Here is the input.
Amino acid sequence: MRYGFTDKGKTYPMHYNRLADFREQLFASFLQAGDTLLNLVDALAAETPAHSLAELSLSPFFPRQWGSLYQGLQRARIDRASLRKLFASVVSAPEPGTRLVLGIDASSILRPCSQTARDRTYVHASNLPEGSRPVSPGWQFSTLVVLPETPSCWTFVLDNLRVVSEKTQGETAAEQLKAVLPLLSVRPLLLGDGYYGSVAFLGASAALPCDFLLRLAKNRVLYRPAPPRPQKPGRGQPRKDGAAFACHRPDTHGEPDAR
Here is the structure.
């Protein structure tokens, strides 16, 4: 049996047996409170206008008392490794001549009034009303997704991980990539915003089986390797850097190694 969903006038088919198998494996990754979590997944998928857990508990797809929702979340245990394998196993192979393109970014969830919430940090939130403080107590979550070939409101989530206070956004992203990339059948291309163009992230992810296309600040200046030391060095310390590569000066770019 087949059914589908529609996005911007285009219908995407889905085989019922494949979906049933996916749900079965999803349920198996819930080590505790699995019934509640699966009902909550159904409610989240169906009740997109809901803004709170209380509203989700009223969904016809959550046939439980509202109190069991909170109790289930407190008792829940999820096999994250199994969940990553499941998500990676259903990623469609790219069309011939194209790349599998991934995207990664971190989103902030403000929790200024949740004084008992564990491990809150100060996070930055964009697009707030004028006069609001852009930095507030809350959490950050790093999300790794498969980007669609054409722009769409749909993305396929491969992994979602909270950025704990002991780690940076880049360290968390590198941890996710190390866990997920070996599960993919092809070498992907990762797109990242300006933060991921930092030395810290590139150093932690340089050996991973992935190509990177990352944003750099327009005034960033990089330096090529230093020239070899002369056989008869003169006075002073040898050069540590080579010629400059200034992003805002095309005359310093030279010829690209590849396009």
Observations:
- The mean pLDDT is 88.
- The two ends are 44 Å apart (CA to CA).
- The longest helix spans residues 16-28.
